[in-house]
Every structure is written in C-alpha cells, then in structure tokens.
Amino acid sequence: MNAFEKLAFFRQSMAFEDPEPPTRSVGNSTGTLEPCPTGGTGSEDHPCDLKYPIYMAAMPGGRRIPILKTMLTSVCERNCNYCFFRSGRDISRQTLRPEELAGAFIQMAQKGLVQGMLLSSGIAGGGSQTQDRLLATAEILRNKYDFRGYLHLKLMPGAQQAQIERAMQLASRVSVNLEAPTTLHLQRLAPMKQLVEELVKPLQWVDQIRREKPIGPGGERRWPSSTTQFVVGAAGESDMDLLRASDYLHRNLHLRRIYYSGFTPLQGTPFENLPAAHPWRRVRLYQADFLLRDYGFSFEDFPFLQDGNLPLNIDPKLAWARQNFAEQPLEINHARLDELLRVPGVGPKGAKAILAARKKGKIKNMEELRRLGLRGGRMDAFILLDGRRPSFQPELW
Ligand code: SF4
C-alpha cells in the first residue's frame, strides 16, 4: 500500500471513534474535532474527503480548519480492554514511516485538503521508541517541509522528559490520554498502563517546562497547550471520580481542555457486552468541566447523587443555583465577580460587563441587563436588582 492507501485504511479503522464532544450549548469549543460538515461526500470542491481521516477542528478565536487525524501505526503491544487496536485482536494493521506520512501530509496540504494534523500511534517497541517516530515525523514536517501550521502530537506512555520537551518545541498542542480517573479504574480499562508513572508524569513535565521556561525556543512562540481525555462509562467510575481528577488537572497542570469520550462497546474486545455510556452523561460532564475551568467551581460544589453521578436531567450550574440562591437571591449590585459567575445565564463576559456597568450607577431592571448582553429567563429566580426580584420590576415595553 502507498501512504494514501494507508491513510484511507486508517480512516476506516478509526470510523468508530467519537470525534465530537457535545459542547455547543455549554461553552467555547476550541480544539474540538467534528466530522466533515458536508457528511464527507468527497466532492472535489470541498476540502473534506470521506476517503481520508480528515476532521474539522476549531482553533482559538473560532476559526475552523480541516486536519488530518491519523496514527503512525495501528500495531500495538498494549491490551486496553475497550480498544479496537489492542494487541491480540485478529485485525489487519498498517504502519507509516515518518517520511512517508510527512510527505503524504504535505501533498494533501498543498492541494488544500488539510491545514493541520493530529498525530497519534499504537505503541510498538515501547513508548519511548514510539515517541521517537512521532518526533521524527514532526521534525520532517517542521524542518524539511517548513510546515508552520497546526500540529497536535500525542505523548506516549513511557516517553522521556527530553522527548516531551522536544515535542513541545515542535507542536502546537500536546496531549496524553489518561483514560481513567484513578489507578483502580485504569487497571480495569487498560491493565498494562500505569496512571501516575506513565500518564500523569508527562503532563506534569509539560507544566513544569512551561513554568520554568515561560517562552518557547527563540522567544518566537508560546509553549503549546495540553489536553487529555477520559473514557466515560466503561470502568465503573463515577462523575465524582472524573470531576475530582479534572479539578486537579485544571488547577495544578493547567490543561486547556479535558475531553470525555463516551464508551461504546466494540465486538471482539473484553468489553463487548458492556452498555454504551448514556449520551447525556457526557453533556453534564462537559458542563461541569467548564464550571471547573472557567467559573471558579470546585468538584465539591456539584450536586452529586448518592451513586456519585450528576443528575442527567439538570444543568449542574442550575442545580447549584437552586440549592444556594433560590431562598437567598444574589443582589446583582453588590455581588463579587466569583458570585456573579455562579448565576445561571451569566458567563465570564457578562459578569465583567455587570461590574463595568455598576461603576456608572445601580442596575435597576432587566432591561439594563439585556443592554449588557444578558438575557433573563434562566437568572430571574436567583437575583435581586436594587433589592427587588426581577419579576417585580416594571416592564419597559
Ligand atoms: S495503547 Fe492505545 S492503541 Fe494501544 S491498545 Fe491501548 S488505547 Fe489502543
């Protein structure tokens, strides 16, 4: 097979993957992947092509670009219980050499098919050797072909600190898939992986390098952002387990995004008879995660049920407000930034707009909030405007 045939092969092998987190209603979707919006018809006038593993990715600022999401090899010596590529499965596998993949990618970029790449790999010959091949691909792209676009590199379990620093010099983003929130849960999912030593450690090194060397090489660019992913619903982990781990990762390792991939059973794996994760579970986890990252919530704030999961039928911010503001609504004219961020319908931009408007005088009615870009409805039951509930304010139209 030539390189393009191998990429088409990977497209078919990766078709079961879960590319799009359900984040539209809950916040910024920077860095997420979506399938080709045309349905991937492969028409000549559209950059997405069903033949290859090309996805649309949202960049900082909202720009969306087509990226090639591929592996260097689908050979893997690990045996993660949920994975299509786990060792011992009787499937055909393919491997691309670094120069082969880099050359094919550049041809696709020159034709306008792709503007970036997310590069991962099965583990073959150990994590460190596999990382070397990912780095070799990135070196060819950056140094031989002078590719300056988006490049997301996966960090392999067992990669060395020096390899991670080099990956950070070459990539726009780096990531490690933790997959499970605790050692116990990871043992169920991926018996050959070690959570702290192999998976958390690289993320700690990423954060350490960013702190100790604040600007990238030559001072020309910033260090890349880092992300991770959990598999949701296969190992008996609760939402509390996941969000406790996410809270730690956001606060201490400064991850840009945490992805929650809903488990889907695959035939021929030890987990083939487990049920798929409930789709609303991911929605609630993403909502809670944004509250941890951008709204000052701690995982202890969430209204977990007795089984440690979030209720599926209510947004966690709304549930928190019902418990805390329903009897004692928040006076918008006196509230601090962190208090405003707890009100349903008020985001970081809206909270700052309220603080700026208060410098000019009291906010007395919903119309003034609407002029600041805030819509009533969700917040009405939880706030006071100059001592009165909004429902008691006179209508201005
Ligand atoms: S290491 Fe990655 S590719 Fe290999 S079995 Fe585990 S999840 Fe699959």
State mean pLDDT (0 to 100 scale): 88
What is CATH's topology name of the largest domain? TIM Barrel
SSE string, helices as H and strands as E:
HEEEHEHEHEHHEHEHHEHHHE
Give the termini distance in whole angstroms. Answer: 69 Å
Task: Sketch the major β-sheet.
Answer: 8 strands, mixed
Query: Which kinds of small molecule does this entry bind, naming each only once?
Result: iron/sulfur cluster
Strand order of the largest sheet: 1-2-3-4-5-6-7-8
| Shape designation | globular
Task: Using the CA coordinates, give the radius of gyration.
Answer: 23 Å
Secondary structure tally, helices: 12
Name of the CATH homologous superfamily of the largest domain: Aldolase class I
Give the helix/strand class. alpha/beta
Beta-strand segment tally: 10
CATH architecture of the largest domain: Alpha-Beta Barrel
- State the low-pLDDT regions, or none: 19-32, 35-47, 393-397
Q: Considering DSSP H and I runs of 4 or more, what fraction of the residues is helical?
A: 25-40%
Total individual domains: 2
